[in-house]
Amino acid sequence: MIFSAAAVAQHLQGELVGDGQTPLHGFAPAGQARHGDLTFAENDEFLGQAEQSAAAAIIVGAQTASQSGKVLIRVGNVRIAFARALELFHPEPALPAGIHPTAVVAESAQVDPTAHVGPYCVLGERVRLGAKAVLHACNYVGADSVLGADCVLFPHAVLYPRTELGQRVRIHAGTVVGADGYGYVLDHGRHRKVPQIGHVVLGDDVELGANVTVDRGALGPTVIGRGTKIDNLVQIGHNVRIGEHCLVISQAGIAGSTHLGNYVILAGQAGLAGHLKIGNKVTVAAQSGVMHNIPDGQTVLGSPALPDKQTKRQMLAMQKLPELLRRVRQLEQKLEAANAASR
User: Fold this and answer.
1) CB within 8 A of 14, min separation 6: which ones?
2) Quick one: pLDDT at residue 4?
């Protein structure tokens, strides 16, 4: 796919500097760029590499000038333009509308004629599949589930009954949405299962990575808000509510009935106890263990998680502990010697 530099600049809503008719054949990092490629430079180091490369054009910041005479596309945010350029040069493949002959679709299911249902998919009773939705292969969609327009399920993703997906939801391979929440009560010496009769609701533009598990609510829904992105290998417990535009990074876990505000970031392997309230724009650092509510805007670190500055002071103090113990021991020895001399 070939675009002119002018066409790319227009797509990126950027300012073109140089020959707008320059053909651009692809997108590559500066170190690998070949003749005809578009690349990007978000700092001076990358700009130097890009100008020395074979790239035909460079995406740069709004005030950047070229020393090599290459075509520039100036933008307000290079990282955003980078993402949009990749979408332009590498669009997702369009799959044909229709239902594969090996798919099993209940008679009561409603599949939009523009949707794609791949091999060996199973759609239960009263499932509704929206316009241009894609089920790649071997997907199970339980009864009464609803998938909005442009949803994509990658192979072996599973939706339990009554799961609700908004528009443009993406669920990657091996992810399970709507399995039983982990609920038991000790009854005469054995763990009695508490029936989990809720469901799961995912808002528009939610993305779940590979091998994510989202448990359905015991009563009512587990909810993931609009625009939230979940990384691979994340566990979300029953009746959890995650706000809009949150980021949950790989191997994080959220116990049941904890509520997250909007724009929360949980870094890798962070763990949240149950029944907590996490405010808007909270950041939880990697491997932190959260045991209490966190107000809006706070960054926490450690286990148990505390405000990051407090935890960092404790870490610095711990590093000084061996020297402190050595000095205390020296003082004890001097005191013992003085006491012995005075006897």
Assistant:
1) 59, 73, 74, 75, 81
2) 96
Q: Let me know if the fold of 3-89 is the same as that of 157-304.
A: no
Q: Which of 238, 245, 259, 275 is catalytic?
A: 238
Q: What are the extents of the domains in the chain?
A: 3-89, 157-304, 315-343
**Burial, 180: exposed, middle or buried (Cβ in 10 Å; 0-12, 13-18, 19+)?**
middle
Comparing CA positions, the residue from 271, 273, 277 lying closest to residue 293 is 277
Amino acid at 253: G
pTM above 0.85, yes or no: yes
Fold of the domain built from segment(s) 3-89: 3.40.1390
Stated as kind and residue range, the H or E segment containing 310 is helix 308-342
259: annotated active-site residue = no
Q: Tokens at residue 281, please?
A: 């724009």
| Lookup: tokens for 342 | 């005075």
- Going from the first residue of the chain to its last (343 residues), give the mean pLDDT of each consecutive group of 10, the final group possibly shorter: 94 95 94 92 90 94 87 96 94 94 98 98 98 98 98 98 98 98 96 96 98 97 98 98 98 98 98 98 98 97 93 89 91 88 80
Residues 157-304, CATH architecture = 3 Solenoid (2.160)
